[in-house]
Write a structure and sequence with these properties.
52% helix, High-Potential Iron-Sulfur Protein, Chain A, single chain, 163 residues, binds iron/sulfur cluster, 5% strand
């Protein structure tokens, strides 16, 4: 990994954000993915932490200048925090960012399986009748996917008939 190139990329993004106010994530995430070969799910997490640090300075500076309408901030938080929690909950139930899910071609709805890409798939083979499925309801835990919850109607390429 060319470290100087990463530092330069961070410098360039900081410069553009400082000059234009454009969100850094819209620049840094694609840079990490397309120029540095960082996997998308890692690029997003990396960029979020990077943004947390870079935005902290701007936040403190603007707050000191009394340029932050805190009432608006509070209202935005009222909407965004529940949305973020709901997203985390959904991702816990196996989101698309899961590397295991991507590598095994997991889909939460088996009718969406790409049959050309996964010729071993057969209609009727679903998580609910897979030997790895640990659940009785619509959702169950799959140890092959890191113990995350999968949909009983889902499928992945590791499907094996329940004994
Ligand atoms: S291993 Fe079985 S239960 Fe787990 S995701 Fe694949 S098909 Fe579903």
């Amino acid at each position: 990994m060319p470290e100087y190139a990463l530092i330069l990329a961070g410098f360039a993004v900081g410069l553009i954000v400082g000059l234009t106010g454009v969100g850094g994530g819209s620049l840094m995430t694609p840079i990490l993915i397309f120029f540095f070969g960082v996997k998308p799910y890692l690029a997003i997490g990396t960029d979020l932490l990077f943004a947390a640090f870079t935005k902290l300075g701007g936040t403190v500076s603007l707050a000191r200048q009394k340029l932050v309408p805190w009432r608006v901030v509070g209202q935005l938080c009222l909407g965004s925090i529940p949305a973020a929690l709901a997203t985390l909950y959904a991702l816990h139930r196996l989101g698309p960012a899961s590397p295991q899910a991507q590598s095994l071609g997991y889909v939460a709805d088996s009718s969406k399986v790409d049959a050309k890409k996964y010729p071993t798939y057969k209609a009727g083979n679903v998580c609910g009748n897979c030997q790895f499925y640990q659940g009785k309801d619509a959702w169950g835990v799959c140890p092959l996917l890191g113990g995350k919850q999968v949909n009983g109607k889902g499928w992945c390429s590791a499907w094996a008939k329940k004994a």
